[in-house]
Amino acid sequence: MFYVVLIWVCYIFLSFCDKASGNGVNGIKHAVKYAALRSFFGALCALVLLLFSGDGFSLNLPTLLSAIAFGVLVAADLLNFLFLAKTGMVALMTVSGQAGSLLIPLFAGVFIFSNPVKPIQWPFIVLLIFASYLLCNSSKGIYKNFSYNTVLMTLARLLFCGLGTVSMQSFEKYGNQNLNLFFLVAFIVSGTVLSLTYPFLKAEGDKSSLKLSKKLILFAFIAAAVTFGADAFVVLAMKYLPPVIQFPLTAAGSITVSWLIGAICFKEKITIKSTAAIILSATSVIMINYFN
User: Fold this and answer.
1) 88: DSSP letter
2) How far apart are CA 227 and CA 12, in angstroms?
3) How many domains is the chain built from?
4) Calpha distance 218→21 (Å, rounded)
5) Closest Cα partner for 132 from 282, 269, 281?
6) Which residues, other chains included, contact 91 with Cβ-Cβ below 8 Å and sequence gap of 6+?
7) How does pLDDT run across 247-261, given as a tens digit for each residue?
8) Fewer CB near the last or first residue (10 Å), C or N of the chain?
9) Count of beta carbons in the 10 Å neighbourhood of residue 120
10) What is the Cα–Cα distance from 23 to 86, expressed in whole angstroms?
11) How many CA atoms does the CB half-sphere of 189 hold within 13 Å?
12) Distance (Å, whole) CA 7 – CA 107
């Protein structure tokens, strides 16, 4: 249970950094610059862990292809959620990511791994989608700049996170099991894609508006570090708790933590609607995984 608590602590920092960095970027070019820096910080963390693990740099084709796909999706998701953070609740960002990481691999498994969706999972899938709708509705009541673009960005986050999980599953099935090397390649790809895009984008304002503040640089580093910290604690937690217990605790905890961070740090009003959405989404994620 100790490692599960540490995972929750990591999600506290990650939820705060995600929302604060989204509020801090100004325009697409500024966002690309921040996202590229965060990706390269992620690559640095992966490199440090790879060197300490001693797993080496042997790279087979399935690992390379999976990492490239994952890296492109990370780049897209980073940009997307930076703008979603401006008009959506912190919990909406977390739930849409959790929903995508669970539902899209579930449906992809029907075609890729011949694993059909169980009938008992369908009611909870519907509840999870309904919970996401409630959070969108709650965001509309909190943020005056909420628009249909917020809904589209929510769906995009669901898609990017889901396809990213499929990429990781492909790596786990066909790759060389060197997870740190997988992340190193993926984050280098993500940072490179964003960096190559940067010169072609039009700046909103003068050159000084593109400068990353010390806070944004700190947020990028902390977010990259705690992401790897959470992954490490998940591995350690699995030594003491079976996945059927560990995953629900982690998933439900991350959803609840993000909701509380939004309320405490960003003054997102707690309503009956948002409370119901959190309970429904946490319950749905737990039950879908339990019957998986």
Assistant:
1) S
2) 11
3) 1
4) 10
5) 281
6) 135, 255, 258, 259, 262, 268, 274, 277, 278
7) 778 888 888 999 999
8) N
9) 11
10) 6
11) 18
12) 27
CA–CA distance, 3 with 145 (Å, rounded to integer): 38
Nearest to 63 by CA among 211, 185, 209: 185
Residue 96 belongs to what domain range? 2-290
Structure tokens at 184: 């190193």
CA 143 → CA 31, 50, 60, 147, 195, distances in Å? 20, 42, 47, 9, 31
Least confident of 43-47, 88-92, 112-116: 112-116
Q: Where are the alpha helices (DSSP H) in 113-143?
A: 122-142
CA–CA gap between residue 21 and residue 34 (Å, rounded): 8
Neighbour count for residue 173 (Cβ, 10 Å): 11
Residue 114 has pLDDT above 80, yes or no: no
Rounded CA Rg of the chain: 18
Instruction: Supply 50's token pair.
Output: 């790879």
How crowded is residue 248: how many other Cβ atoms within 10 Å of its Cβ?
A: 18
Q: Report the alpha-carbon distance of residue 177 to residue 189 in Å, rounded.
A: 19
Around Cβ 212, how many Cβ atoms within 10 Å?
17
Q: What's the CA gap between 270 and 261, in Å, rounded? A: 11
Of 3-12, 55-64, 113-122, 153-162, which range is least confident? 113-122
